[in-house]
Write a structure and sequence with these properties.
It is built from four helices and eight strands. It is α+β, with helices and mostly antiparallel strands. The chain has a single domain, classed as Alpha-D-Glucose-1,6-Bisphosphate, Chain A, domain 4 (2-Layer Sandwich), CATH 3.30.530. Strand 4 and strand 5 (64-73) form a beta hairpin.
Length: 159
């Protein structure tokens, strides 16, 4: 299912909602453990896991971009900057697992926005697969499947 895209007073909001049959602690570890992060997002690392701390993004050319952590509630909320935008993960326990929500607060839609949204979509699929003990063999093919759908969705909301 595609992310919900909404126009807001300050830009746009993309919201991905997933239900995972795994405890909050296991999902939290995928987001915050530097041994697990590379399994689903090779460029992303925790530098300092605390509010006011930071994640780093490896640009692949030797440069690391710091992304400050804006809000952190252990096993519940993780929010950090994402270039000019903000990414927020929310985990809500459920008797059978947890509700896993990713919100990206987007200031301005660019040509890169559908790429990022398709990327987040695949990342969430990879997290789910890893927790289930599966792998997604061809992430690029998955991204190529979702990208045109996000191009269309972004086009609709910016009309």
């Amino acid at each position: 299912m595609l992310a919900k895209l909404l126009k807001t007073e300050r830009g746009y909001l993309a919201q991905f909602n997933r239900f995972l049959n795994h405890p909050v602690g296991n999902v939290w570890g995928m987001l915050t453990d530097n041994d697990k992060l590379p399994q689903w997002f090779s460029e992303l690392r925790v530098k300092d896991l605390r509010e006011g701390g930071a994640y780093t993004f490896n640009m692949g050319d030797g440069n690391l971009i710091e992304m400050p952590i804006l809000e952190l509630k252990i096993h519940s909320v993780l929010e950090f900057t994402w270039a000019d935008d903000v990414v927020r993960f929310e985990l809500h326990p459920d008797s059978a697992g947890c509700q896993f929500i990713l919100k990206e607060k987007i200031n301005k839609i660019t040509d890169h926005t559908p790429r990022d949204l398709a990327g987040w979509h695949v990342c969430l699929d990879v997290i789910s697969a890893l927790l289930d003990g599966r792998t997604i063999q061809n992430r690029k093919a998955e991204w190529e499947k979702w990208y045109p759908k996000y191009v269309e969705a972004v086009g609709e909301i910016t009309k």
